[in-house]
Amino acid sequence: MTQNIDELFDEAVEEQIVDIDVSDEAFDRDLTAYRTLRDERDDLKKQLTVNNEALEAVEARILYIANARGITQIRKEGVGLISVVPDPYPKVLNVEALIEWLDDNGHGGIAKRTVNFNTLRAWVKEQKENSNELPPPTVLEDKAGQTLRLKRA
Questions:
Q1: HEC string for 54-93
Q2: Is the per-residue pLDDT at 9 higher than 70?
Q3: Could you tell me which residues come within 8 angstroms of residue 26 by beta carbon, excluding any fewer than 6 positions away?
Q4: What is the C-alpha to C-alpha distance for residues 48 and 52, in angstroms, rounded to an integer?
Q5: Largest Cα–Cα distance of the chain, in whole Å?
Q6: In 29-61, which positions are buried (b, 16+ CB within 10 angstroms) versus exposed (e)?
Q7: Whether the predicted model's global pTM rises above the 0.85 cut
């Protein structure tokens, strides 16, 4: 029998809960660890942003120089083979018209009909706050969850 990811997660959580130290000292340590780990994650996100900006700038300079010199590939010792390859970046101006065109021309399979998770989440929260009806459970599963919010002191 194959378990889905939710079942595996639930089992892992249950196994961890059995061994959780619920003393005041352990709770205090976890609160402190939570703050420390959140701060470290925030610092890493900032570092990643800086790194990505620097990487984009280097890529832009390399592309500029490669195009100016007519280079499509270059091998450098200690770096490897770098190739300039086409990378189309289409901009959709009319989603409905594009989906219709793709459907009419046999490419409808690439047009995903999706709902943005964060938008759906906000809508469900709003519906519940206003005691409005949600789609039936066969259409939308509403799993109750909790999260922590941190206001830095």
A1: HHHHHHHHHHHHHHHHCCCEEEECCCEEEECCCCCCCCCC
A2: no
A3: 20
A4: 6
A5: 67
A6: eeeeeeeeeeeeeeeeeeeeeeeeeeeeeeeee
A7: no
The model's pLDDT over 49-79, given as tens digits with 9 standing for 90+, comes to 999 999 999 999 999 999 999 999 999 999 9
Residue 147's nearest CA partner among 116, 120, 119, 125 is 125
The type of residue at 17 is: I
Count of alpha carbons within 13 angstroms of residue 29, beta-carbon side: 7
CB 90 within 8 A of CB 96: no
Cα separation, 62 vs 84, in Å, equals: 9
Residue 15 token pair: 């196994």
**73 touches 82 (CB < 8 A):** yes
C-alpha–C-alpha distance, residues 13 and 17, integer Å: 6
* For the chain, domain boundaries: 1-85
Q: Which helix (H) or strand (E) holds 36?
A: helix 24-69
